[in-house]
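// run 5 | inverse folding | seed 20
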């Protein structure tokens, strides 16, 4: 389990995150939503161990986050950032294979090749295997990076719970691949017990795929609950300063659907 108690982050004189507490159990999908500047990425960096300058307590698998060695943490925690720059002319296969580097202490090249192939297939990029990464479109690069992260945490290390952090994973993707990447993340949660924490701007995507949504505003959690209880017109207007209608999804029982108003 990932557990955070009274997390605060101050950068310079700015208070970015203010006394946030939450927990994410293995097999659950938590979406983090909120307006620009709400502190979503800062919160994710703190939860994932990418930001050490925080106050409060964070634990992963009942162990305080600062007590994890970087190499150990990399075996159970994968992070897909908003953008990942890579200027070297590596092939897609080589980039995804980089995800296996935390496991080099007990390297099994045949196993690594199998995991990479599974990750490529899962992300529907097997056909890009031998393409140069630098020649890909933005959306293709995003899917390659996702495959790299999947290869990193594809297997459990001594039955440790694993965690997948996704920072705006759909930002560069077309409609079909937005759903594809979130469907994969949800499947990993339900079949492999991986806890997924994803920053999503699209509230309808959050409603369709997340077990819970944490709504952030000005560094605070406004509310955290199941989508049907979070996605209320009044709360959305308070959080985003924008009026919406909320109806029911025509094909998904119990799933709310957010509709922007015209004025």
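// decoded
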């Amino acid at each position: 389990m990932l557990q955070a108690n009274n997390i605060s982050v101050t950068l310079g004189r700015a208070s970015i995150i203010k006394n946030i507490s939450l927990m994410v159990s293995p097999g659950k999908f938590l979406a983090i939503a909120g307006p620009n500047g709400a502190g979503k990425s800062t919160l994710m960096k703190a939860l994932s161990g990418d930001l050490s300058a925080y106050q409060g307590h964070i634990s992963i698998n009942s162990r305080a986050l600062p007590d994890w060695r970087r190499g150990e943490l990399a075996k159970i925690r994968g992070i897909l950032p908003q953008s990942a720059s890579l200027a070297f002319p590596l092939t897609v296969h080589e980039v995804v294979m980089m995800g296996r580097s935390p496991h080099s202490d007990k390297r099994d090249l045949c196993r690594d090749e199998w995991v990479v192939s599974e990750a490529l297939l899962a992300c529907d990029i097997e056909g890009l295997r031998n393409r140069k990464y630098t020649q890909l479109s933005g959306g293709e690069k995003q899917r390659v990076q996702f495959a790299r992260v999947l290869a990193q945490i594809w297997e459990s290390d001594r039955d440790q719970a694993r965690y997948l952090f996704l920072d705006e994973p759909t930002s560069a993707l077309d409609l079909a691949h937005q759903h594809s990447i979130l469907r994969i993340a949800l499947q990993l949660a339900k079949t492999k017990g991986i806890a997924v924490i994803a920053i999503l701007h699209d509230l309808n995507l959050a409603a369709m795929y997340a077990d819970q949504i944490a709504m952030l505003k000005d560094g605070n959690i406004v509310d955290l609950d199941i989508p049907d209880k979070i996605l209320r017109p009044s709360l959305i207007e308070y959080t985003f300063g924008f009026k919406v209608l909320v109806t029911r999804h025509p094909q998904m029982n119990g799933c709310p659907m957010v509709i922007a108003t015209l004025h």
